[in-house]
TrEMBL record:
<feature type="region of interest" description="PRFAR binding">
    <location>
        <begin position="368"/>
        <end position="369"/>
    </location>
</feature>
<feature type="region of interest" description="PRFAR binding">
    <location>
        <begin position="406"/>
        <end position="408"/>
    </location>
</feature>
<feature type="region of interest" description="PRFAR binding">
    <location>
        <begin position="482"/>
        <end position="483"/>
    </location>
</feature>
<keyword id="KW-0456">Lyase</keyword>
<dbReference type="InterPro" id="IPR011060">
    <property type="entry name" value="RibuloseP-bd_barrel"/>
</dbReference>
<feature type="active site" description="For GATase activity">
    <location>
        <position position="83"/>
    </location>
</feature>
<feature type="active site" description="For GATase activity">
    <location>
        <position position="193"/>
    </location>
</feature>
<keyword id="KW-0028">Amino-acid biosynthesis</keyword>
<dbReference type="InterPro" id="IPR004651">
    <property type="entry name" value="HisF"/>
</dbReference>
<dbReference type="GO" id="GO:0004359">
    <property type="term" value="F:glutaminase activity"/>
</dbReference>
<comment type="pathway">
    <text>Amino-acid biosynthesis; L-histidine biosynthesis; L-histidine from 5-phospho-alpha-D-ribose 1-diphosphate: step 5/9.</text>
</comment>
<keyword id="KW-0378">Hydrolase</keyword>
<feature type="active site" description="For GATase activity">
    <location>
        <position position="195"/>
    </location>
</feature>
<feature type="binding site" description="covalent">
    <location>
        <position position="83"/>
    </location>
    <ligand>
        <name>L-glutamine</name>
    </ligand>
</feature>
<feature type="region of interest" description="PRFAR binding">
    <location>
        <begin position="508"/>
        <end position="509"/>
    </location>
</feature>
<feature type="binding site">
    <location>
        <position position="335"/>
    </location>
    <ligand>
        <name>substrate</name>
    </ligand>
</feature>
<feature type="active site">
    <location>
        <position position="242"/>
    </location>
</feature>
């Protein structure tokens, strides 16, 4: 039984549930810090920063936490900062609200946090990457040096002559080297998320807490480092679980065929449409994918347009349960929009809906229909933002990395490149594909409500507008390819990934490992997602990763 409780500094932004669960998984109990006075009494503080630097520092100040925290850190007491919890240790950050002056950080580590250059690389840096160790530390004692850990950030702290002695590990993203962990004495912080880094992250968390318990935390040793050593971001394999209530009222994972999730009726028998395909229970299936090496799991509530998410207790419970045992990022989609309850007349903003999901254990929320509306409105206003769309309000509070836009387009075949008078981006079909009348081109028409409503806007435009409004990632489906097992729609993936600087997750159509390798080689997508082939156990996640590795594409090893 540990001799102390972990003091958790939760200032109310983002998903701290996973951090709590990771602490429990390490065998420790938690004491919440709710009063500034508790800070100097703590035995070990964990500070999981989520959201934006400016708002995090403002909340710390408003709550009176900033000064006691500075004193605690100056006394070299056990501390683990995570992500923004590391960045706030620096003097300042370029991440502040436009038009407002920068807010100083805690100023414990010399240097400024700056943004990755989106003209040169995909930003945010999302996914699994390595670490180059600058010090030997008990915190990394039980993990292999080449175990990947999970990052999600647009801002980073560069290694400088002034902060060199703090650097515990560095990581490279494209040509940029940044600090991925710091340690000086008992003050430790990581840019990556141990609570989202699978078994490796749990080992880091446990090692930190055990070193506090044993009094060995501060025993570090500088290492010789190779200044030219680099690390590489892996390509992510994402599993999607389309969740809905079946005809018996049970919440099940289902899977569509071009978005139709009902079994086909038997030939010649007029029985109406078949039942909803039931491929398993959401939490059990998601836990299996975590164990099998899925890099990320997305739950999509595909009937959300029928009801308000706030009443959607089953989906919130799914997240709460899933986050107890799954320590990789969880995305939830479906119904992230403002909502009025006709019975009570109460209205919930999209931000309130998203907050419910974040508190239940989601790391990212994914928006479909609402993003199409927002893109149409942005175009209609000539590009003038209102600051009030769901995308803008959620990303302002939780950071762009927490907001995914899920696009559900279908092909509209056209005869030539200029068939839509430049209103929509027209692409040439790949290989020997042709439309039903021999067309060689198509544009990708966006839909809302899971394919039920067609809109006069193309996928490339929605992706661009979503990026402008604050999306941090695009989940790019394709209704024509969904459930077909014929491979991803490469032309669509190329068109969208070339039009935005945020990461794109390729989705719809995977049927074998070769399809992943193919999309990673031919389009600039950072992740690829499959559903049916994993649910039906036709292909294992590890087989996909093996194929990627044997074709020179980095994939995370789950150890
Ligand atoms: O519009 O914000 O409420 O969000 C609704 C969400 O639900 C969107 O993300 C939308 O994509 C999703 N959705 C709605 N209806 C369906 C449906 O299938 N009838 N599913 C649906 C989306 C796409 C992927 C699927 C891939 C991979 N399904 O999740 O898993 O196509 O499948 P495959 O590997 O088997 O080919 P809002």
């Amino acid at each position: 039984m540990p001799s102390f409780k972990v003091s958790l500094l939760d200032y109310g932004a983002g998903n701290v549930r996973s951090v709590r669960n990771a602490i429990f998984a390490a065998g420790f109990e938690i004491q919440e810090i709710t009063e500034p006075g508790q800070i100097l009494e703590a035995k070990a503080i964990i500070f999981p920063g989520v959201g934006a630097f400016g708002s995090a520092m403002r909340v710390l100040k408003e709550k009176g936490f900033d000064e006691p925290l500075r004193q605690y850190l100056a006394q070299n007491r056990p501390f683990l900062g995570i992500c923004l919890g590391m960045q706030t240790l620096f003097e300042s950050s370029d991440e502040h609200e436009p038009g407002k002056p920068p807010i100083p950080g805690l100023g414990v580590i010399p240097g400024k946090v700056i943004k990755f250059d989106e003209t040169k690389m995909t930003v945010p840096h999302i996914g699994w990457n390595g670490r180059i160790l600058h010090q030997q530390s008990p915190v990394f004692e039980n993990v292999n040096n080449d175990d990947d850990v999970y990052f999600v950030h647009s801002f980073y702290a560069p290694v400088t002559a002034e902060n060199k002695e703090w650097v515990l590990s560095s990581t490279t993203y494209e040509d940029e080297r940044f600090i991925s962990a710091v340690q000086k004495g008992c003050v430790v912080a990581t840019q990556f998320h141990p609570e989202k880094s699978g078994p490796t992250g749990l080992k880091v968390m446990r090692a930190f807490l055990e070193a506090v318990e044993n009094g060995t935390l501060g025993s570090t040793k500088p290492l010789e480092i190779d200044e030219t050593a680099t690390t590489h971001l892996t390509k992510r394999v994402v599993v999607a679980l389309d969740v809905r209530t079946n005809d018996h009222g049970d919440l099940v994972v289902t899977k569509g065929d071009q978005y139709d999730v009902r079994e086909n009726q038997k030939e010649g028998v007029v029985t109406g449409r078949g039942g909803v395909r039931n491929l398993g229970k959401p939490v059990a299936l998601a836990s299996r994918y975590y164990q099998e090496g899925g890099d990320e799991i997305a739950f999509l509530n595909i009937t959300s347009f029928r009801q308000g998410v706030i009443e959607d207790m089953p989906m919130l419970q799914v997240l709460e349960e899933a986050s107890k045992n799954i320590f990789v990022p969880l995305t939830v989609g479906g119904g992230i929009r403002s909502y009025s309850d006709p019975a009570s007349g109460q209205t919930w903003s999209a931000l309130e809906v998203a907050s419910r999901y974040f508190r239940a254990g989601a790391d990212k929320v994914s928006m479909g229909s609402d993003a199409v509306d927002a893109a149409e409105a942005l175009i209609a206003s000539g590009g003038k933002k209102t600051g009030e769309t769901s995308l803008e309000t959620i990303s302002r509070v939780y950071g762009v990395q927490a907001v995914v836009v899920s696009i559900d387009p279908k092909r509209v075949y056209v005869a030539s490149q200029d068939s839509t008078d430049k209103k929509h981006v027209v692409v040439e079909l790949e290989g020997d594909q042709l439309g039903p009348n021999g067309e060689r081109f198509c544009w990708y028409q966006c839909t809302a409500k899971g394919g039920r409503e067609e809109r006069d806007i193309c996928a490339v435009t929605v992706a661009r507008c979503s990026e402008a409004l604050g999306a941090g990632e695009i989940m790019l489906n394709c209704i024509d390819m969904d459930g077909q097992c014929k491979g991803f729609d490469i032309a669509l993936m190329k068109a969208v990934s070339e039009a935005v600087t945020i990461p794109v997750i390729a989705s719809s159509g995977a049927g074998k490992p070769e399809h992943f390798t193919d999309v990673f080689k031919r389009a600039n997508v950072q992740a690829a997602l499959a559903a049916g082939m994993f649910h039906r156990k036709e292909v294992e996640i590890e087989a996909v990763k093996e194929h990627m590795r044997s074709n020179g594409i980095r994939a995370r090893t789950c150890s």
